[in-house]
DNA sequence: CAATGTTATATATCAAGTTATGGTTCTTGC
DNA sequence: GCAAGAACCATAACTTGATATATAACATTG
């Protein structure tokens, strides 16, 4: 069965990038599930941003993540309910709500940085290893490699080697 | 403001691909809006698949687009309401519902293939021109170029040159 | 200093993908 | 030839992005 998105090339590059991204996220989610981390893979960038940049107001958080502000507002409410982030009102500007990692959130990030992220990063790096040439060719190679060995299996193998 | 997704590199490649894909689709949508085509850019791959491959049952359509079957079912109902596709029951297998372009749908595709798709394809190709090297670098270049000149403006310029 | 405009966030709604599951219809094996 | 399983599609619920708009706090200006 012909892969139409691939055949259409540049015309549907947006759909194609989204498709590959969704698959990567789903595979990453499976890695996390297996490790008993009960959080969505898509929330990690937000936690990582707070870890890297320190407490931030909602708007700047959105900007640093490259997503729209309402998405951050929603993610923050969710993570607040999970007790991973805290929100405090800014002193000098009552409109701004500063988001920061809670103690639990910081602990989760520290653990993830040590035990989880390197594994995922290695798996993705391996997935993309030795790619070169035009973009469409690289994307096709990534799709082919993912079809042959999903990311979560690559992460498993990496762990087997490491331990 | 640091772009966290970019800094995290391979770790958040999935989120990053989705982000770029969404921006490309949004820009493409703006091109379409300006051309008075009242259809979502994300529906074009489905129409293009039917145009390329002929009438297809729902499952094969999903496979050729690389998305899950419920997504196709929903898109097909939407396009059926718009009068762009038609669904007929298969004769030899009552479970299969064959999706095909309606007369209007075929006309829309023919027009798009002549007037719209080349423009978008050229704009995206130009966006990706001369890219080479590692994947992350190419993605960064695409984001930078998009920030400098959005896709819809590139398509505009292409039209200006062409006409 | 009050009116107006701007900025920061929240809320509502939509879009388009996902997984899980249910109902028909086919197929197969005994 | 029928009972069990498989295949195909629809539906429901969820996720995560988007845009549009409302609200509240701050800034500006006449």
Structure commentary:
The structure is a homodimer of 163-residue chains. Chain A is mainly alpha-helical. Chain A is built from eight helices and three strands; from the N terminus they run αααβααββααα. A three-stranded antiparallel beta sheet of chain A has the order 1-3-2. In chain A, β2 and β3 (97-101) form a beta hairpin. The mean pLDDT of chain A is 88.
The number of distinct β-strands of chain A equals: 3
> Low-confidence parts of chain A, pLDDT < 50 over ≥5 residues?
none
Portion of residues in beta strands of chain A equals 5-15%
Radius of gyration of chain A: 18 Å
Number of helices of chain A: 8
Integer average pLDDT of chain A: 88
Assembly of the depicted chains? homodimer
**Would you list the SSEs of chain A in sequence order as H and E?**
HHHEHHEEHHH
Considering residues with a beta carbon less than 8 A from a beta carbon on another chain, report the largest interface and each chain's count: A-B, 53 and 53 residues
Taking the sheet with the most strands of chain A, its summary is:
3 strands, antiparallel
Separation, N- and C-terminal Cα atoms of chain A: 40 Å
SSE-based structural type of chain A: mainly alpha
Order of strands across the main sheet of chain A: 1-3-2
Portion of residues within helices of chain A: 55-70%
What is the 3D form of chain A? Answer: globular
């Amino acid at each position: 069965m012909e892969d139409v998105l691939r055949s259409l090339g540049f015309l549907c590059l947006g759909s194609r990038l989204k498709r590959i991204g969704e698959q990567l996220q789903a595979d990453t989610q499976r890695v996390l599930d297996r490790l008993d981390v009960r959080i969505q893979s898509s929330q990690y960038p937000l936690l990582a941003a707070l870890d890297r940049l320190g407490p931030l107001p909602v708007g700047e958080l959105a900007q640093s993540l490259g997503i729209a502000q309402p998405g951050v507002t929603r993610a923050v409410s969710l993570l607040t309910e999970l007790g991973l982030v805290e929100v405090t009102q800014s002193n000098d500007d009552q409109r701004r709500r500063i988001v920061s990692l809670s103690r639990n959130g910081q602990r989760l990030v520290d653990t993830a940085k040590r035990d989880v992220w390197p594994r995922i990063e290695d798996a993705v790096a391996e997935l993309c290893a030795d790619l070169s040439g035009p973009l469409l060719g690289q994307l096709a190679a990534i799709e082919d490699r993912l079809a042959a060995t999903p990311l979560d299996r690559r992460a498993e193998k990496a762990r087997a080697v490491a331990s």
